[in-house]
Write a structure and sequence with these properties.
about 210 residues; alpha+beta; Immunoglobulin-like; 7-stranded antiparallel beta sheet; elongated
């Protein structure tokens, strides 16, 4: 009887260990999941297309780029932000007309950051609009990000996103809300920590290492 009770206690101990390890590994996996920042164009102004301003020779474009870190407890390290503007009647092959660069920076969790700039464009004189008074531009953003999880930093991951921006006869973007820059590349999605990392971390927390 004593041996039977000892065997039952050992099974219960093993089951408890497996269950606790599994739950801890699941918790660690959920904790280490990250989401890429949300990048959007909040404002976009082309003076040369503003019929009320009479600035047809003004070759600048002003914009407001917003970056949202929606991760609850993970900061983001950005490499330099490289933004390129495109314009042309053929949106399949638009012409690059300007670019802007912003220095690298760190963004805390649940924070948003604005990067505003007025860019001097080239190769677009005179500006042309469609018959309805609108013009279509494209904005592409390229950078690389690392995520800070507690005191640990992930490896760098490329982030390349973009979107079309339609401008009205007042030189402003037609869409009232911010225009989200999106990526068509599936590998640029959310970061997933290596399986071995959260398994080892689980054992460390449980005190088995």
């Amino acid at each position: 009887m004593a041996d039977a009770d000892g065997g039952g206690g050992c099974c219960r101990c093993c089951f408890s260990f497996i269950l606790t390890s599994g739950l801890t590994a699941l918790f660690m996996w959920l904790s280490l999941r990250t989401s890429n920042p949300v990048c959007s164009i909040q404002d976009f102004y082309v003076p040369a297309l503003d019929k009320t301003a009479n600035s047809t020779t003004n070759t600048t474009i002003s914009f407001d780029l917003k970056l949202d870190n929606e991760n609850k407890d993970k900061g983001i390290y950005y490499d330099a932000l490289n933004l390129t503007l495109y314009y042309g009647p053929n949106q399949s092959h638009p012409n690059p007309i300007g670019n802007a660069t912003f220095i690298a920076f760190y963004q805390g969790h649940k924070k948003n950051t604005h990067r505003k700039k007025s860019v001097e464009t080239y190769g677009v004189v005179p500006w042309e609009a469609a018959s309805n008074g609108t013009a279509v531009f494209r904005v592409d953003l390229a950078t690389a990000v690392r995520f800070k999880i507690i005191a640990w930093k992930t490896k760098k991951h490329k982030l390349v996103v973009g979107a079309q921006v339609e401008v009205n006869s007042f030189g402003k973007k037609v869409m009232k809300k911010g225009i989200r820059l999106k990526s068509g590349a599936p590998e640029l999605g959310c970061y997933r920590a290596p399986v071995g990392l959260f398994v080892v971390s689980s054992f460390f927390i449980l005190g088995f290492i």
